Amino acid sequence: MKRTGLYDLHVELGAKMVPFAGYEMPVQYPLGVMKEHLWTREHAGLFDVSHMGQVILRPKSGDVADAARALETLVPVDVLGLAHGRQRYAFFTNEQGGILDDLMIVKLNDDHALFLVVNAACKDADIAHLRAHLSDTCEIEVLTDRALIALQGPKAELALARIYPRVADMRFMDHAWFDGDQVWVSRSGYSGEDGFEISVPAAGADAFVRQLLAMEEVEPIGLGARDSLRLEAGLCLYGSDLDETTTPVAADLKWAIQKSRRTGDRAGGFPGADIILNEFENGAATKRVGLRPEGRAPMRAHTPLFDAAEGGNQIGEVTSGAFGPSIQAPMSMGYIPSELAAEGTTVWGEVRGKRLPAKVTALPFRPSNYKR
Amino acid sequence: MKYTEEHEWLRVEGDLVVVGITEHATEQLGDIVFVELPEEGTEVAKDDEVVVIESVKAASDILAPLDGEIVEVNDVLSDNPALVNEDPLNDGWFFKMKIEDLSALDDYMDEAEYKDHIG
C-alpha cells in the first residue's frame, strides 16, 4: 500500500486511514464526515489529493500547439483553443465511445507544455495510454515529486491569499505559478465550492499544509466528505458514475465537448468519435440523472431502479448515492432510459426488498459557488 | 445494563427491555442519517433484523436481542436520527420489548466484559 507525503500528518491529526486506489488515505478526521462536509461549505476544507496523477506533456517541437493537437487525438475536447494559464475538464475515450478516465488539462502559463491531472485509480493506465499514442510528438513526464492539495470553500481565497495574495485575482479554471515556478495553483476543485487545487514540491508539502491548517478557517477534510460534497455538486466519480461503458452523451457531459471538435476541420479524430458525435446529435439510449428519493433513506450505489412501484421492469441502477449533509436529504445519481429522464419523472429504487419512489431532479442538488 | 456482541445495550425497565447501541458503535458508524423502526406490536425472534440504520458511510441492521414483542419505538429518531450519535445511551434508544423471561438477559455481557470485548 502506497502513502502520500502527508501520511504522517494525517495520522498525527487523528485521521482514520483506509485503502483507496492503492494508497492509505484519510477517510475522515475526528470532526467526522458530516461536520467536515458542512465546514467546507461554510469555511475552508483542506484535502490531500496527492494520490492523483500529475503529468506534463511537453511537445518535442517546442510548440505547445503540437502537444495540444496530439492530445486532441485522445480527448473530444478543444485543447488547441485553451488559453495560456487556463484549465479545462476532459475525458479519455475508447473506440466504443466509453470513458477511460476523466481529467483536467492545463495550458501552463509561460511554458510550452500541458499539465494533466488524472484519477489515482486510472493513472498507470492513463500514462501507458499517453505513452502508447503520444510518444512520437511529446515527452511524457510523470511528476512523482509533487503533492496535490485542494483547498475548498468560501474562505479558501481568504486563507490562501495570506500566502499568495495574487490568488484573489484568479477566476474559476485559471491556473498560475507562485514562488517562481515552484507552486502551481488552479482555481478549481471537486466540491461545488470556490477553491483551489495546489501542486507543491513534495519536500515542502508538509510545512505548507501545516501553515494552512494553522489558520482558523481551515480544517482537514477526508475522502468521506469529499464524496458527499462532489455528489451534492452533481459531479461524477470515475469508476462509479463514469466508466468504459458510459459515453459522454449518456453521462450528460455534452457541455464538455466544444463545438470545434464537432464541426469544422478539427471535428472528430478522437477514439469513438463516430458514436459520440452521432449521440451528440441524436441522443443516447440512457442518461445520467439526479434522483431525489422520498423520505430520508439513502439510495446507494447499485440500487436497482424500476419503472413501477410493483412489477414493471428494471430500467437502470444508481451509480452514486448518499445522504446530503447540506441539503439534509438523500440524493443519488444513476442511469435510466432517456425517455424517462425528464425532470419530475418518478422511478422506484429497490432498497432492502422495498421499492421506494425517487424523482428525477436537475443537477446539481445544491447550487455551486464558483468564482466565474 | 447488558451488552451484545453487536454493540447493542439492553436496559431493564420494569418488565420491559430497552434497546439501543453503544457509544463505541456510534463512533464506528459515524453520523447517522436515517433510522427505520419496526411497528409497535411486532412479535420478533432473537436475531431478527428489526431496525435499519444508515450512517454517512453505510447501512446496518440492529438485531432483536431476544424473543419477544416490540411494545414501543422511539419515533423521534425518524425525524432526528442524529440523536443516536448525540446521546446513544439515553435519548437515542431504539425500542422497548416485552420478553417472557428476563433471565435470558444473563447470557449477555456486563459492562466490564463489554469493555474487554471492544478492547
Measure the end-to-end span of chain B: 18 Å
CATH topology of the domain at 7-50 and 144-232 in chain A: Gyrase A, domain 2
What's the oligomerization state?
heterodimer
- Span between N and C termini of chain A? 39 Å
The CATH superfamily name of the domain at 7-50 and 144-232 in chain A is: Probable tRNA modification gtpase trme, domain 1
CATH class of the domain at 7-50 and 144-232 in chain A: Alpha Beta
Helix content of chain A: 10-25%
Can you tell me the CATH class of chain B?
Answer: Mainly Beta
| Strand elements of chain A, count | 19
Whole-number radius of gyration of chain B? Answer: 13 Å
Number of continuous helical runs of chain A: 8
Shape, per Cα inertia axes of chain A: globular
Which sequence of strands runs across the widest sheet of chain A?
10-11-12-9-3-13
Helix/strand/pairing class of chain B, anyone?
alpha+beta
Give the mean pLDDT of chain B: 95
Features:
heterodimer, A: alpha+beta, Gyrase A, domain 2, Elongation Factor Tu (Ef-tu), domain 3, 20% helix, globular, B: 119 residues, alpha+beta, OB fold (Dihydrolipoamide Acetyltransferase, E2P), 9 strands
Report on this model:
The complex is a heterodimer of chains A (372) and B (119). Chain A has helices at residues 7-12, 33-42, 64-71, 123-134, 156-161, 202-213, 223-232, 273-282, and strands at 16-20, 23-28, 44-48, 53-59, 86-93, 99-107, 114-118, 138-142, 146-152, 175-178, 183-186, 195-201, 218-220, 286-293, 304-306, 314-324, 329-337, 346-351, 354-361. Chain A is of the alpha+beta class. Among the domains of chain A are: 7-50 and 144-232, Probable tRNA modification gtpase trme, domain 1 (Gyrase A, domain 2, 2-Layer Sandwich), CATH 3.30.1360; 285-372, Elongation Factor Tu (Ef-tu), domain 3. In chain A, 47% of the residues are buried. By secondary structure, chain B is an alpha+beta fold. Chain B has one domain: OB fold (Dihydrolipoamide Acetyltransferase, E2P). Chain B has helices at residues 23-29, 76-79, 83-86, 111-118, and strands spanning 2-3, 8-13, 16-21, 32-36, 43-44, 49-55, 59-63, 68-73, 95-98. The mean pLDDT of chain B is 95. The chains are: A alpha+beta (372), B alpha+beta (119). Chains A and B meet through helix 2 of A and strand 4 of B. Chain B: Its cofactor is (R)-lipoate. Chain B: It comes from Marivivens niveibacter. Chain B: This is Glycine cleavage system H protein.
